[in-house]
TrEMBL record:
InterPro entries: DUF7668. It comes from Pedococcus aerophilus. This is DUF7668 domain-containing protein. Residues 20-100 form the DUF7668 domain. The lineage of its organism: Bacteria, Bacillati, Actinomycetota, Actinomycetes, Micrococcales.
Length: 100
């Protein structure tokens, strides 16, 4: 468990918004295959920043890894999560979406 620091939240929020909008179809395989008919991601709530399923690991070199649960139209949160990397400069790249 971890809390995503305030300074990283805007970049994480932007990456998640792009995911929800479908801009990263390469990461939506698990979303399409979730349950009997797939899932529809929704705008992620403020609860992701310190949710019990959120993980944040700051490294000595200033980079970090982050995992956040994902909300769908039917589950709050679902068993889906997004995993990302944060550069030392604060840029966020989502690298995977999978089931916990």
């Amino acid at each position: 468990m971890g809390t995503i620091p305030e300074r990283h939240r805007p970049a994480v929020r932007a990456a998640l918004k792009s995911l929800v909008q479908g801009d990263r179809p390469d990461l939506l395989v698990w979303v399409r295959d979730y349950g009997a008919s797939g899932a529809d991601l929704t705008t992620q709530p403020e609860a992701i920043w310190d949710h019990p399923l959120t993980d944040f690991l700051q490294r000595e070199d200033g980079t970090a890894s982050v995992v956040v649960p994902l909300w769908t139209t039917e589950e709050s949160p679902s068993d889906l999560c997004a995993e990302g990397e944060i550069t030392a400069g604060g840029a966020v790249e989502l690298i995977d979406v999978h089931v916990l």
